Amino acid sequence: MNAPEKLKDTLNLPKTDFPMRANAVVREPARMKHWEESGIYAKMQKKNLDGPSFVLHDGPPFTNGDVHVGTALNKILKDSILRYKNARGFLTPYLPGWDCHGLPIEHKVTKKLRASKKEFDSVQLRQECEEFSKSYIETQRAQFKRLGVLADWEKEYRTMDPGYEAEILRTFADFVEQGLVYRSKKPVYWSIPCQTALAEAEIEYYDHISPSIYVRFKVQGEEGNAYLVIWTTTPWTLPANLAVAVHPRESYCEVKTGDVSYWIAQPRVDEFCKECGFSDYSIGETCNGSDLAGKVTRHPFIDRDSPVVSAEYVTMDTGTGCVHIAPGHGLDDYLTGLEHGLEIYCPLDDGGKYLDDGQIPQELVGLSVLEKADGSKANHAVLEILNTTGSLIAQKEYHHQYPHCWRSKSPVIFRAMDQWFVSLDKEDLRARCMDGLKDVSFTPEWGRNRIHGFLESRPDWCISRQRSWGVPIPVFFDEDGNALLDFGLIKFLSEKISVEGCNLWFSQTPEELLDGYELPDAWKGKKLIKGQDTLDVWIDSGCSHKAVLRRNEETSWPADLYLEGSDQHRGWFQSSLWTSIVSSQAAPYRRILTHGFVVNGEGKKISKSDGKPQTADSYVTKYGADVLRLWVCSEDFRRDIPLSDEILDQAVRAYRTLRNTLRFQLGAIHDFSQKEHGVEVEEMSPVDLWALSKTNELIREVTDACEKYEFHRAIQSINRFCSGILSSTYHDVIKDRLYTLDVNDPLRRSTQSALLMVFECLIKLIGPFTPYIADEAWAFGQSGGEYCEDALSLQNWPQEKVLGSGEIAVSDIQNLLDFKDSHVNEALESLRVKKEIGQSLDAEVELHIFGDSKLGEILKRRSLVELAELFIVSSVVVKNLPSEGTNYVTAQHAPGTRCPRSWRWVPELVYVEPWGEVSPRCAEVLAKFG
RNA sequence: GGGCUCAUAGCUCAGUUGGUUAGAGCACCGUGUUGAUAACGCGGGGGUCGGUGGUUCAAGUCCACCUGGGCCCA
Fold it and tell me: What is the set of domains in chain A, with CATH numbers?
């Protein structure tokens, strides 16, 4: 070391290469790469091989785009939990997954293929979908890594892996084996020109003009001419009418005109009479909707009854309050049909033409319901019939938005089709599921209530989809449409698929697929046709507990934790539960933790119109991963999680504070080696013990918060610690001894010993939340450079230091600091306002203390030098008050002369060659410089 | 429209079984320092706890209704 030239150079000022600015955008990726190359994930697992395991099972994100900020939030929380648990000694295997199948991908790929004008079949479509999914797996994996997520990327799972697909089919086979799967009709959107089923995402809404008609249904079994009047804009569905629905708690009244009376919901009467042109009418009886339910009406032109049922969704906004129900042609109608045991009746063929089923009037048979330029033939014909039978009360044109097919642009219809269902009540399945939840913990606790509600009310699970990009339902049909649904056959096929993947189903003939399997006698020799449907993708991800937890030796079943957004109460948590109860008779998770959704600064859902980016990457490339993680962990994620520039700026500032705190500490211990200079806790000075005590408190708070998954409380504690305990108190107080005392002064080494403990502890506590800066600071602390052998992630969670008899000193210091806050600073501030002093070292304070007070007792144990240091003033004078009185403080400018080295005012300076005049204490230190 | 849920200073959060003038950190304003300096200290202003009504000696904390937001359905 060069000989000091200036007095300032004789001070031990902080020194560190730890940069003040993070430059996270460049340096974080380098650190991630270092982690990866040094195999940090594997080392973390190895460290805890003998520990208990903590299995967090990853819910697979969908692979159709960049990582969304909400998905990033989810992964960050998972990573933080796992880093914490690992530090606590748990073995924490983490196998991330990808949800690959599904309509959104098929939709995008189909659009692309259609734009290229190439012909394609389902095999080619699936090929493209696979490529699409794979490319986003690459993208998302890189983005997750960038967030700092540590995982066993070598063993990630994909729902499109052959082994996984086979597991899906085995699960389906379990459902079949237990007799839970049945075939029934359900309405779907149907495009007549394309002769295909459509999903909601394939629907576009356009303005459309429909006939608006009022039709009367005669009430049966009563005297007189009483009718219920329905209103509809799809006359062609009337032949499939099987009921009329009313709202049970609305009032209905009898509108009398001529010798007939019409039952109409009371709020709709005026509108109805106007539409029908009734000028001369009177109101008769009134009753509740529930009183009408149970009555029976007559279909206006088909020989059958149409019962009156009640339904909650009947509105008073339009129509008559009496709703035409065709269970085969609408979702509400369908559910009402299920509820009342109605047939899911749909007398249309694939081309949208009425079938001749013995019920449809002959004049309608063969007519198409498809709307063309001149309207729908079916509508015209039905209106004709209604007119001739006198059932039509009024008719006009109705302008509204109507769903159209995204390809043919023609209006779609709702049409019931054969689908596969899982019965949820057979074998007590539903009850067993709800029972299985009893062993599951929920955070927040209301999650239990929510999932329970879904389980209770959901109708049977429709598991078939008319799609290509998914796992096929391996069922064969004979030429009469009979289905061969055989669990033995499904298991047989799953073995083939476990090797070759599902493409086999699409590329091979039935004969090839069945090669090696003996068909049941009744099916031998028949010509078989492959089923076209695929399984609901919720089965895909819902099997992950089997496909992943049971098939990997690192993991165990059930998982300790599932952690997803609260939308998954309805989704993955539920589908996983059904499959798990069927296959394993218990829930696949011990705890369900849910987070809310990311919303904007106003608390509204984030949308493109906000003009804010929604991909995680757009934030990471601007702020770095630690800042984004700090944002995530600062929020109470159980409710909505707001994100705005202001909030991110806040995270930036918190990050800077953290960074500066660590940087100051690194600088302060730059010449300290625990081995060479370490001071034992018992030997430490009181203020150092106080700092350790406060650190113990921080450990308790952060640990408690982490155990409850309340990271925001941990972050708040850490922020408070950095500013209140360190920056404004401890760090401020110890500057004098660190800077001005001899390097080896016991007091200085005591403080450095404590500081190192506080430093390492703080780093370990922030490690789960902001791993980049934590690892960086740790490395600088260990080696003085960017990286070190024994990385932070391999350290255990900090433990509280035992202070023993030091607790008394701690209590004294705490009391004195409280007194400083409440009295001393006030006195100093008033001097400062009067411009009598600048920094507090310019002052002398007088403590006027009531002798028998608590503070009086404390002062007996403490020296004036100690007090001056604690108050950061040049001198302290204690004046005892008479026996009665209140403690108070006065302050004045310190007497004497200012030492140019320590800046403290002393009675007299001493001359030291070659430095000049300094305080006696500094003179002693300088003497050693020779 | 239904189920679940949330609502405390500009922002992020505390607030124990209802009990004295509702707290913290950040931001803001003023100010000091210039030996943590694109940093740090000190001081200050700021909330009637979404609204209304009720229970109670006493409510941010219990009850009812309303308003606004979120998720999931319809």
Answer: 7-18+633-804 (1.10.730.20), 53-180+425-608 (3.40.50.620), 196-415 (3.90.740.10), 811-895 (3.30.2320.20)
